[in-house]
Design goal:
Among the domains are: about 100 residues, Thrombin, subunit H; about 90 residues, Pdz3 Domain; about 100 residues, Pdz3 Domain. The longest helix has 20 residues. The N and C termini lie far apart (about 70 Å). With about 500 residues, it is of the alpha+beta class. The strands form five sheets. Strands 21, 22, 23, 24, 25, 26 and 27 form a seven-stranded antiparallel β-sheet that branches. The protein has a six-stranded antiparallel beta barrel with strand order 1-2-3-6-5-4. The chain contains twelve helices and 27 strands.
Length: about 500
Amino acid sequence: MSELKKFFIGAIIVASYVVIAPTSALAKGAPDSFADLADKLLPAVVNVNTTQTIKIERRTMPQIPGMEDFFRRFGRERDRNSDRNREGEEGRDNKEERPLTRQRQSLGSGFIIDPKGIIITNNHVIDKADVVMIKMHDGREFEAKVIGKDDKLDLAVLQVETDEPLPFVTFGDDAKSRIGDWVLAIGNPYSLGGTITAGIISARNRDINSGPYDRYIQTDASINRGNSGGPMFNMKGEVIGINTAIFSPSGGNIGIGFAIPSNQAQHVIGQLRKYGHTKRGRIGISFQQVTDDIAESLGMEEGHGALVSAVVEGGPADRAGILAGDIIIEYEGKVIKKRNELPIWVANTEIGKKVKLVVLRKGKRKKLTLVIDELPEDVVAEDEPVISDEDEAVEGKDILGMSLEPITEKVREALKLEDDVEGVLIASIDRNSPAGERGLRRGDVIVEITQEAVTTVNDAVARIEELKDKGRKSVLLKFIRRGNVAFVTVKFDAED
């Protein structure tokens, strides 16, 4: 059989497989048009225009030797003329110095979810605004009242007064949407008015480090400045996301936009409508994700869970017996796999509810029960203390690229350490060393090494050498910086 004949037979076989492939295995193509869906949705999407009045401090004229008379005479005349221009003849008799102000405007998008005039947008669109105006797709304008906002999830609920029902849209279940599904984004990019763009869901559960509750839907539908607060629709015309951020070096669309998932948003919106603010749950801990490096240093098979770095005294976790160094691996029967899962689950739990946890404490599983408390207002972190280079030198030891020294009273005072804090001070560090490359720095206080407390430099060195002798590839350091507790793994250098 000739090679050409073999080629045609192979082509026919391949073609036959394509023809008989089941339709369920094929991806759905793009719709012929989005026009019908756009006609249905556009009336419920609004433009949000805000105005903020900003006070400006008056600047004093520069003092230049020999020019005092000039500035005194002509500066006074200029101020007098400015007063006349602003206030007419009244400016002559007005001796009070009025503050200078300017207006700052912000533009965004929103959408109506209730015919009685309830509108959803982003908090950053209306934050600190003195006046919020809503412009409908048909040109009507309303002044809106802010009835609730949440800066952590970047959501705000507005209310406009109307004598007749307004067009509105409904939320859908974002969990039913899949990567690759078509979506529509409608908003007010660059103040152009109602604009519709189409794309697909590019990814789900994106953590872009914008806050503790990141689980964004990523899309390639064109989203630009002014789209913030606008809705993302599925092909049923349901809101499955609220457009809130873009990733772009230039500030324009490059095909990477992010939306708050509808299921997550609805929980917060319900609270904002009811209370005017959010009521999030808390368990009273600081934690960090258990990475593969941390897992290896603790002898775990894989990295998952939340490593507790600090416990709030008197909080739910403290009352339940959770300790710093515990690893929370399960919450209400759900295994913690990603960094932001625990804070999201806790935040969405009803205040006062009893929840079951499973923790690992020095390799052993322990079941605990705690009662969810309400998350308090944020606490502002203090400025980082500085240790002077003139502090008296204390004999120390170098290991892993760190120079370790004991904590003197002078150091304790400079770092504002509590009297009961014991450990060793990192007096200096080589940035290219194993410890330096992991972000440790001068002034950090190491209090534990792989879940064992250290109180002296000799303790620290002995513990590190012990772990190395056991064949561990890294050590887990618990340290204090600016009053905050954190963990970091440091690998052994080949020469150590």
